[in-house]
Design a protein that fits this description.
single chain; 231 residues; alpha/beta; 2 domains; binds adenosine-5'-triphosphate; binds magnesium ion
């Protein structure tokens, strides 16, 4: 059964910096960011605090909240990029995170080599690999750049490359940090179409956004994070 279950999930980021000294002197009233607390002699940002969440087939969860309230951190925990300091995370299903798109690329390698590496890491079937790679290259419309090292790519070209790879995965769960802003307008139209189809075919969607309008349009469940807690 495809599902997401978080039980009492908390995540603290330790702060190691000269900045921490000045915390003792300054008490600034703030509404952004996680709560900054002192555990023994160390300071931590409580990015997430005791999050409980249960999602099942058909759920489209929208996450809102001010800057630094823990949205991206929560998505990273759901995606397995970050492990919680406390609590339990249970995910059943193939999950595709459309977050941190540029992470894990080898910038010295070509776009094509990165496609091959990513497909193999994603466990794609060797039998269909050539066909899948061909489709990814076609969709990306990177032309000759596919043979160039990724370090020569513009940010839009990197997004084209990674989106083209990720959107080939048959996913049960889709995780997004804001809606797509990949490439130029022509590519965006094409990518939006593919993404909408992916979401329709998926079981669970979790998206964080500052646009209430967007969340109202695509989500059937909502949470708001404030200082790392569900309000
Ligand atoms: N790698 C990190 N190291 C230390 N603190 C971090 C790190 N990443 C995030 N934080 C802190 O964790 C808290 C939550 O950050 P997060 O990026 O999850 O917020 P957000 O809700 O996604 O914000 P935004 O709306 O700006 O995208 C913030 O206080 C931030 O400063
Ligand atoms: Mg964020």
């Amino acid at each position: 059964m495809i599902q997401i279950k978080l039980k009492n999930v908390s995540l603290n980021f330790p702060i190691y910096s000269e900045v921490t000294r000045s915390f003792k002197k300054t008490l600034v009233k703030k509404i952004i960011g996680g709560n900054i607390t002192q555990l023994k002699e160390h300071y931590h940002v409580e990015a997430l605090s005791k999050i409980n969440l249960q999602l099942k087939h058909g759920d489209r969860l929208g996450i809102s909240g001010p800057n630094g309230s823990g949205k991206t951190t929560l998505l990273r925990v759901l995606s397995g990029i970050l492990h919680p300091s406390d609590g339990e995370v249970k995910i059943n299903g193939v999950l595709v995170p459309f977050i941190d798109l540029h992470y894990g690329l080898n910038i010295e390698a070509s776009g094509l080599e990165n496609i091959k590496m990513r497909c193999i890491l994603l466990g794609m079937n060797f039998k269909d690999l050539d066909e899948i790679i061909e489709k990814i290259i076609d969709f990306s419309e990177l032309g000759k750049y596919i043979y160039m090292p990724v370090k020569t790519y513009s940010s839009g070209m990197i997004m084209r490359l990674v989106f083209s790879i990720l959107s080939m995965i048959k996913s049960d769960i889709i995780i997004m940090d804001e809606w797509l802003s990949v490439g130029d307008s022509d590519f965006l139209i094409k990518a939006n179409k593919r993404l909408n189809k992916m979401i329709d075919d998926s079981s669970i969607l979790v998206i964080a956004s500052h646009s209430n309008e967007l969340l109202d349009n695509i989500c059937n469940k909502r949470i708001e994070l404030v200082e790392g807690k569900i309000r």
